[in-house]
């Protein structure tokens, strides 16, 4: 890159004035902008061969140098290098000399077409035999300003001049009014019909072919002119004329000349052609045709140049200008004709062909380039006001010298640059400001329909605003375009929100549009934002015609810095759509891990927030609340103490808002975030105490009640095993919480669902069988049967509860609170079976359930109160059972029968009645009696 060295300060100042001048009418100030080339090729001078202007104010120039050693018949050839000169908005000139990797003959014929931001479309030919035109295929190549090739693709067949047997680059390219929608290529084919095809250039440079076709011009006699124009609704239209010299004696009033329009919507097929002008005047020829959108009013405009000859040859030919304003539907709004000789033009020959240029601030510039000497050319020009047909001279001398190729460029701010003949190793432009005929109607939006907006241009607003407003001069109605809000970050646009028709209302008799703003849109305060309004966002209410929008970086404003309170780190849940879940499952294991990284990148770009502030445990969990398989994903938002960083609370709110409105935000454009379920949003994972404090208080209340009952039981009988009341509560709680977990949570981790069922139902089945078996067996003993009949209901309830844990039966002989129904006379054999049943439960219930709960905790995304309580219950149960069984193994148990103190009565020697216990028997009873009892 080289910044202008010669008179650098003056050149920079001049070019800034060129791009920023907004005077209503020009003054006689002619300026010059020049640049000296870095490389000097001696006598081979640089020539300005082409120029393109971009919406961001950048101007791109192609410089060529004639190659004296390379000649191809009928072609003018240049050095095999693509020399770009990029003029930035600040007046800096960047030189780029690029090799395009194309066949050498292309440097004689290739064309340059402007693309999107930092994109250039190059059209060239690939030929298997350079000498055989039938082997030529036209290709398109997208490059950036540094020459990096984004894509190459064939775009059509070339036009072959049969007489010369050469390929003629006769195809034309029309860039869509919305550059993001690409361009249309069209050409007259061998049958004199129009071949056309639409293309779109993606942001990554890929060329995508859209609709195509052949427009058969089956109209009267011959077609004299045919062009393609862009339309405000971001489509195209083919406009063509025809005339006839044949006199119809039977019907002399038949039209002798006609003008047709055939609209073609974006990526659509043509609509039927509409006739918008015809004349019965004889001996006509359409010598020139210009059509474009009207920047100041609605619709389109065509200017026809018609030459009428005298068939006798006695009178000179006469030129007429016809200006027709019409709607996209083909309805004509106005018609105006002008005889060329009646105009006071800056040239002697009023009948010369004029090139018409529509100006962004109203009016037209008409130019004609003609040779004035060997390798010398000049340009004539004059202006016409939209509201006055009298020609207005421009500020240049008449004629104005121009370079060999006749390159001139009109910028969006009505600045005209005319290339000059090169005489040394530099190039230059003569520059003037064209008058802005309707400039007082534009309020800085480059749009003559918009009167004002809120926020206003360059204003400062609060980040909490809920609506934006656009006021129009005339009544409008909503159409299918949209508003797009961007934030500038490092001078690059970052999408914040789309606004569609559904978020807008129209009031004030159709002159005001109000649009609703998402809470997340301006949440990153202290930045520069701008709003882009699509063409066809609204249409004229009277004519139903699409209106122009507002381009990037025009409607810009600032957002105030907002103080946000510090918040601690927080986790939350997102949910994938059913399609997103299927997509995730289809990924290999390593790509599933990468999916989370891509998702965090997408969220970081959309919010926007530093990537380091977002985390994920890379786990998924099925959401049991929906019928289809949909995964839950946990996202962590880390706290930051850096000043002006977005707060945790703001990040959480932004994710929720943007996911719920993902069709309107960058979330929908992300590679992974597009799979997020907008009906779910982003749900923060609350502290379990905050979420379930009333449930937990209820559990604590029950525990407190059990403790009270324990002390009550102890006060009644301190010798009983009163701790059994707490044991009973734990057993009941464990049964309820296990079943609840299986019913509500086990399906969250599919691989744990079946084991969870097995290790709940199998122990219940075994415990139930064992409990009924023991009670049945014990009922064969008279003493137990006597107790059972006296306490039938209690015994039945505890037999059923024993299905949860066989240890429940031990409570029946615990002598709890001294109640007789807790003094069941179980045999030692029954107690032994209860003991071994408890041991079995440890291995088939307690240990498996603890393992399941640990695995659930490791693999789950959303850890809720039920799994937590299940884990606690399982661990406590396992611990108690291990301690109890370990104690029972080490020390003998005591009998349920009370020991009777030794009295003075005669004593007898007692006999052991079990393997582990001895009894002291009252002297009033014999050993035999006590044994049977």
Q: Care to describe what's here?
A:
With 933 residues, this protein is of the alpha+beta class. It is built from twelve helices and 46 strands. The longest helix is centred in the C-terminal third of the chain and has 32 residues, at 828-859. It is elongated, with a radius of gyration of 45 Å. The model is unreliable at 1-26 and 892-933 (pLDDT under 50).
List the defining traits of the structure above.
transmembrane helix; 12 helices; membrane; 5-stranded antiparallel β-sheet; 5-stranded mixed β-sheet; 31% strand; Immunoglobulin-like; 933 residues; alpha+beta; disordered N terminus; disordered C terminus; Alpha-Beta Plaits; transmembrane
Ranges where pLDDT stays below 50 over 5 or more residues in a row are: 1-26, 892-933
Principal-axes geometry comes out as elongated
Helix content: 10-25%
What portion of the residues fall into strands of 2 or more residues?
25-35%
**Main sheet, how many strands, which sense, barrel?**
5 strands, antiparallel
How many beta strands in the DSSP annotation? 46
Q: Could you tell me how far the N terminus lies from the C terminus, measured between alpha carbons in angstroms?
A: 113 Å
**Structural class by helix and strand composition:** alpha+beta
Number of helices: 12
Over the alpha carbons, how many angstroms does the gyration radius reach? 45 Å
């Amino acid at each position: 890159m080289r910044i202008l060295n010669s008179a650098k300060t003056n050149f920079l100042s001049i070019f800034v004035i060129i791009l920023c001048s907004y005077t209503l009418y020009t003054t006689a100030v002619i300026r010059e902008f020049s640049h000296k080339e870095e490389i000097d090729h001696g006598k081979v001078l640089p020539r300005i061969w082409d120029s393109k202007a971009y919406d961001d104010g950048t101007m791109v120039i192609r410089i060529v140098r004639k190659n004296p050693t390379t000649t191809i018949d009928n072609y003018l050839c240049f050095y095999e290098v693509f020399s770009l000169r990029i003029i930035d908005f600040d007046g800096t000139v960047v030189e780029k000399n690029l090799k395009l990797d194309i066949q050498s003959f292309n440097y004689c014929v290739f064309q340059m077409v402007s693309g999107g931001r930092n994109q250039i479309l190059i059209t060239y030919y690939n030929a298997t035999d350079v000498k055989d035109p039938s082997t030529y295929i036209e290709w398109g190549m997208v490059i950036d300003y540094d020459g990096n090739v984004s894509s190459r693709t064939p775009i059509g067949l070339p036009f072959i001049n049969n007489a010369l047997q050469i390929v003629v680059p006769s195809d034309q390219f029309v860039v869509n009014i919305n550059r993001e929608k690409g361009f249309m290529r069209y050409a007259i084919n061998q049958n004199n019909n129009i071949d056309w095809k639409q293309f779109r250039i993606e942001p990554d440079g890929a060329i995508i072919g859209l609709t195509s076709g052949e427009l058969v011009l089956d109209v009267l006699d011959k077609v004299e002119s045919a062009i393609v124009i862009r339309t405000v609704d971001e489509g195209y239209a083919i406009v063509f004329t025809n005339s006839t010299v044949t006199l119809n004696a039977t019907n002399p009033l038949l039209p002798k000349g006609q003008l047709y329009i055939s609209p073609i919507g974006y990526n659509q097929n043509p609509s039927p052609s509409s006739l918008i002008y015809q004349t019965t005047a004889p001996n006509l020829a359409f010598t020139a045709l210009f059509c474009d959108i009207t920047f100041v009013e609605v619709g389109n405009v065509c200017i026809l140049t018609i030459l009428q000859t005298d068939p006798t040859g006695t009178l000179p030919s006469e030129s007429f200008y016809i200006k027709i304003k019409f709607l996209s539907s083909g309805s004509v709004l106005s018609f105006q004709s002008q005889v060329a000789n009646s105009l006071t033009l800056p040239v002697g020959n009023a009948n010369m062909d004029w090139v018409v240029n529509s100006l962004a601030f109203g009016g037209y510039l008409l130019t004609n380039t003609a040779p004035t000497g060997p390798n010398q050319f000049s340009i004539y020009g004059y202006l016409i006001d939209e509201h006055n047909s009298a020609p207005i001279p421009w500020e240049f001398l008449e004629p104005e010298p121009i370079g060999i190729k006749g390159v001139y460029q009109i910028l969006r701010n009505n600045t005209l640059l005319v290339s000059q003949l090169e005489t040394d190793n530099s190039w230059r432009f003569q520059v003037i400001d064209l008058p802005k005929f309707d400039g007082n109607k534009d309020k800085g939006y480059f749009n003559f329909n918009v009167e004002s907006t809120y926020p206003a241009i360059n204003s400062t607003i609060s980040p909490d605003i809920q609506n934006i407003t656009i006021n129009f001069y005339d009544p409008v109605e909503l159409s299918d375009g949209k508003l797009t809000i961007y934030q500038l970050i490092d001078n690059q646009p970052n999408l914040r929100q789309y606004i569609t028709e559904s978020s807008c209302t129209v009031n004030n008799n159709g002159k005001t549009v109000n649009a609703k703003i998402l809470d997340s849109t301006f949440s990153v305060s202290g930045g520069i934002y701008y709003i882009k309004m699509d063409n066809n966002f609204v249409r004229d209410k009277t004519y139903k015609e699409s209106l122009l929008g507002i381009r990037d970086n025009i409607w810009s404003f600032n957002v105030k810095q907002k103080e946000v309170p510090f918040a601690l780190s927080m986790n939350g849940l997102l949910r994938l759509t059913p399609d997103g879940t299927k997509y995730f499952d289809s990924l290999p294991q390593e790509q599933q891990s990468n999916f989370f990284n891509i998702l965090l990148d997408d969220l970081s770009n959309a919010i926007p927030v530093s990537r380091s502030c977002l985390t994920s445990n890379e786990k998924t969990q099925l959401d049991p609340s929906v019928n289809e398989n949909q995964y839950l994903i946990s996202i962590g938002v880390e706290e930051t103490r850096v000043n002006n960083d977005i707060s945790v609370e703001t990040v959480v709110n932004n994710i929720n808002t943007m996911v719920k409105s993902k069709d309107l935000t960058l979330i929908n454009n992300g590679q992974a975030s597009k799979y997020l379920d907008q009906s779910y949003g982003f749900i923060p994972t609350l502290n379990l105490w905050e979420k379930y404090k009333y449930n937990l208080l209820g559990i604590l209340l029950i525990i407190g009640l059990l403790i009270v009952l324990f002390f009550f039981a102890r006060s009644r009988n301190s010798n009983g095993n009163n701790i059994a009341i707490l044991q009973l509560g734990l057993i009941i709680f464990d049964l309820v919480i296990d079943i609840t977990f299986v019913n509500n949570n086990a399906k969250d981790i599919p691989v744990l669902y079946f084991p969870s069922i097995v290790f709940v139902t199998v122990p219940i089945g075994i415990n139930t069988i064992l409990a009924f078996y023991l009670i049945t067996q014990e009922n064969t003993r008279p003493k137990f049967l006597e107790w059972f009949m006296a306490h039938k209901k209690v015994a039945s309830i505890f037999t059923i509860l024993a299905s949860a844990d066989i240890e429940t039966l031990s409570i029946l002989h615990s002598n709890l609170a001294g109640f007789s129904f807790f003094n069941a006379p179980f045999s030692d054999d029954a107690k032994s079976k209860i003991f071994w049943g408890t041991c079995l439960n440890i291995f088939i219930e307690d240990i498996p359930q603890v393992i399941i709960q640990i695995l659930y905790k490791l693999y789950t995304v959303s850890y809720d109160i039920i799994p937590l309580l299940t884990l606690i219950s399982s661990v406590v149960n396992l611990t108690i059972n291990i301690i109890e069984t370990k104690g029972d193994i080490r020390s003998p148990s005591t009998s349920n029968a009370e020991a009777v103190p030794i009295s003075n009565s005669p004593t007898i020697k007692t006999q052991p009645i079990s393997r582990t216990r001895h009894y002291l028997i009252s002297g009033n009873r014999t050993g035999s009696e006590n044994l049977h009892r």
